[in-house]
């Protein structure tokens, strides 16, 4: 389905007066309100193709209806999100789930929907039906050189698909590791993984980046071969200037200070991208901002601080993507909530009085430093975010409009109640 | 396949001299060696039917070959384990995966294999193809009374199957909970779950027990309605004398002192059973004893202390079961390793000089108390466990014999390379 | 020093116009704004006497200046806080640090400062210089009955002091536990602790409560004898109707769902009180709301829901206290920040549309339930809290006024730069 | 007191027959028994001067008696331990607690006791009475350059003391960090710390090493400026070839895979040393091997594997030290238990059939790899360790002899019941 512009305009018209009343204090009080709004307009978050269907756990999966059955339908779903919030103008594909059959048609569709192709993702954590060798004991780390070569070849193929579509980066998330003490020679696993990554790196086009994603545990439960930012940094450093670390919020040990990791990686010029989600226990892949919104805000404070210090462009110089699993929610509604949570955190972080903050820090005025951050966080920035959406042509309240239009009902009507997204 | 008794005897004969040399110091030095050996002979650990196939994670599953395709073949596998180690003489069924079509035939097979039927397990954490209502938002806690009734009826049906086979207990593990703050009214969820459990309890035969298993997280990632031992204890207390708490080693928050929980529950007369596995991060379901063998030993120290204090019989008065997932190992080999690890911990705990330990405790002699426990733990009790196996008619080295006989190869020959166990 | 009413009024006058502008939308849009403001006025948070000086860690302590040197000066400090925010009208004493020498004079001072005496706290986690027997190996759990009796007597003496001052409750936090496996017989430790508590309970006046506080770890690092809510609940249940569980936010294992614990304890009629602080790793005792403000809000949602369900009075029927350690902040500034954070969370929780929330829950509308909570949390309720302060006679911005008046400088002038609060 | 050689010999004589009976199977069955014993003889673990007195927590401290009152008495205590176990032939000093007044006399005493001086340790986590500027807000990271310079100067002074005594390394453990979000500019804190370390590095003698120790949390509870191995590696890399990372077992987030960290650091040539202790929750500083002995064994497996791969000498090429706190045990008894636990883990790791292990790993035989490790761990190697002690001139059972001789009683007699070690 496509969003009807009349419906969108009617929706906005019905909410406009209230919105303007809420927004009014901003334009008066905040000097740089316009600048913040423009940054919000520019900020785009990629939607991964696998987040459009209902997720699940090892214990089971409870699918919803109307889920996309093809790459085309996945793009339509992202296009719909983007039409609603004007902040989801990119899609991240996963190979082999999303191999395009007709590249030109796919590109045309993307263009119509206003989407670009974000990082492409390889998959060596599962065996595909037609696969010669198994990844049961790893891929790029595997003891058998033939398995490693197969995984390298797959990554190069992923790059090839990405080039065809106009992607500029490859994300390598490895589930490689071990489940039991003794299973792995850690040094060999590291060296083999590095050599494999070097082979992939060699195939990277000049203007591409490769993101080495780390994860503390799961699906391996004793060790992960790219298990923390330190390891990822080592790989990325040894690979070269096109290699970066990718941070996924859910991939850490309990209580990790992720914002500090972000600051260090930015300082070293090695932060490449971000996967947003939220969690309480492990890689729970919950809606962004649903569990620890203050942490999200603190991370954005570091991102802005660190990017500005390097003269990086907020919108383009890091890869921003949602990576969550929607076990008990409508995936599209969940994504609307996630994008909004990211925008709110970004807006709040933009409001931080950084000059005053630095002054407080230099004076060891801990109380004041906290006040400055909390002042920004306690501010209700929803009017700013809504205004940015309005200016960009989106809906004042995307979720409300989604429900009002019964989008899910329409999708079920078009696609059926029992559909399974490829890759789920 | 059946274990050929000749092969077993040849295996034992070939290892006997070495075994006797290793055992010799025991019979000389340890006063109660005979008693320990007898307790080891008596101690039986139930094997769950779902542990006989390759497990997996939400990211994928890498099946092995020769996996059991039916309840009958699952029983054969447990029978084989039992023939090898003489300590796996019970099977725990999972409904609906293991509904017996011909009860009499199943009972006869069990009798031939020397197996009894341990606790039966209900499943309301997944939807079955023919199911009227979904458990997506819980079962016994569900807002809709009709879903709760469906789940109650299922549990009562499970009891009925258990009665037919001679089981004496029902294990209720609920995945009920919530993934997001706000999703659940905790009080209503508790009350509804309690009422549902009361309806199940009412259907329990006179000589049955019901085990209320708790789990801190997964597959729900914000709250679990039976989330810790305190909650489980509350349910069990309110239900009545036939209701008990069941402890699964992997179902706790990081760093929990499980042995203390065991001690308290035993003291309150509310510990009902145990699910053995090991883990480093969450419910990793790794081989028993593969990560924290000392913790396993400490738990057995509390079990023995607490059971003896209440005059309970080690072998019968608690339910002992392995509950693990074999993602990268042959399931049968993993189970052999798990049973051995349990036996070693049990044997070491039996060696603890408890009179001396109590004396040290009463004198606040912390150093001595630690020495006493470590003395037992550092002792190599493998000869004792092997001797127990030998006397009971098992193999001196079950795993070695399993490999020597190429059991897996034979099973693949019989059942095929690509089989899928029901329920996986 | 005393707060000069003129200064207070000048401060408020200077901020009034801006405050009224911020408040204006509330009185128009929020139906029950008046009710929320009144609840905020009524809500009082006790300040513990030990929170008025600089805290420290086992590695060191970096004292500030002007710290209170006596019970009288501690009361003055709380009086000052209360004069600023009108929400700290209670002080919680710690015996033996705060034994009053002249009860009548102390009561008169309290009356002048508008303070009442909250729960009294016993101390059996340290040895006092004149103490006959040591608590090195525990107090109420101790193997030696004489040590237990000494600890019981101490608690009874604490009650006596509390009665003299008008307290109505005793908080028992025990550091009892063990540092090493084997050190403790868990069952004996439990039974001895219970018996000791029963002796204390027997000395409790008719209209008193006793709070049994639990803690997962520290200062004992293997087991704590009152280690979790389940244990505390068991003790409180066995003691009787005057015994309750006390929850301290920092006393849990990583990732614990504290709001669910609150809900269960309220439902069972056994939640007695709260110790507020915040933390990232353990019992870090940081400023309330400085790390996980959303969790604090969720806890207040459960408190309100659960108290209302039982017809409890928010202001009186639970004990509310801050329990933090101010290692790098001015203690009084930290307390002002903490009280504000509590009020904000309370106000936000009061804003939750509970009827709509229940409706969403009953419909399993997870997205909507989350929206409802987030809507309240994302609202900037600072104007409401400031208005409540204003009406109660406090400062619109207590922290700003505290700095403007250079309160700390004055205290240093009065008391000196190098002072040590009793008990620190 | 000095250990009487007659008493030692009598002790050994009384246990010799039993020891030889236990040892006998080894010399027959284990090919490389002699080699293992020799490695155990050579392996020395440094004792830190601050571990000789009773430790404490922020809640209190329960001192024992007969604690050393001076550097000389601390050396005597280590000398005594070394006389008992012949494996504690090094002492690690802490400045300013252990500034030697007469270097020559100290050196002579060390020579008589058979001790060498291990790494010297600086202290910028506390303020000393005569100190000009405070470390309340950090030392090497401090916003104020004068504080940084003071901390740099202190470290250079520590090096000077170390040079005088013959130490060859400096351990820098920084408590620098922050307690609250906002307090610190992470990038500036990193840069300042790096610059300060560079100034210290510049003062390092040619043949010295500097160890940069990391810690996840405590005493700062939001961020630590050297917070994990990745950070420490970055500092050490930027500093140069004399800079290394130091791993303390208790300084990690929950569930960290420390053995993998060890393997990576060894591979990168940046592992410098080790601080041994054990813990369940945080930096609990419990007796080595008292909580997770299998983890200790796994770490030693990686140490041996990694050191051998680089041709490093086990005894000399890494710094080995115990770093624990003895809150409820006699410090000397605790240290005897700790050294024994380290030796057992080392011995078991030496027994691992590494050729077979590599073969299993290359074949992805996870079951076999686990069997190989567990086979070594389940072996009772106490006779080997005792034999090594015997050959080196120590006691067969140091702890038993310590008690038999009533060493603590004698120390109390010499030094008094109420003594306080410098620095505690």
Automatic annotation (TrEMBL), chains A, B, C, D:
UniProt GO molecular function: isomerase activity
InterPro entries, per database record: L-rhamnose_isomerase (IPR050337), Xyl_isomerase-like_sf (IPR036237)
Keyword presence, Phosphoprotein: no
Origin superkingdom: Bacteria
Keyword terms, alphabetized: Isomerase, Manganese, Metal-binding
Keyword check for Metal-binding: yes
PANTHER family from the UniProt entry: L-RHAMNOSE ISOMERASE
Name assigned to this protein: Sugar isomerase
Species assigned in the record: Fibrella forsythiae
